[in-house]
Amino acid sequence: MEQQRFVLLPTVGGAWVIRDTQDGSPVCVLFHGGRGIKKTRAMADVMLDALNAAVGRHAQGGKR
Q: Model pTM?
């Protein structure tokens, strides 16, 4: 399985952070708030898919 550049990690405070594994920087912090965990996780998965797909296209010389 190919390692993804952007990953979702839990925080101590119960939030999630999307982190760039290339330099370790946080890209986005997500709090589930009133949406609930399932909806927040679904949104995070869409964001991760988009970020990782964009990196893949860029690495292959594709247009943004």
A: 0.79
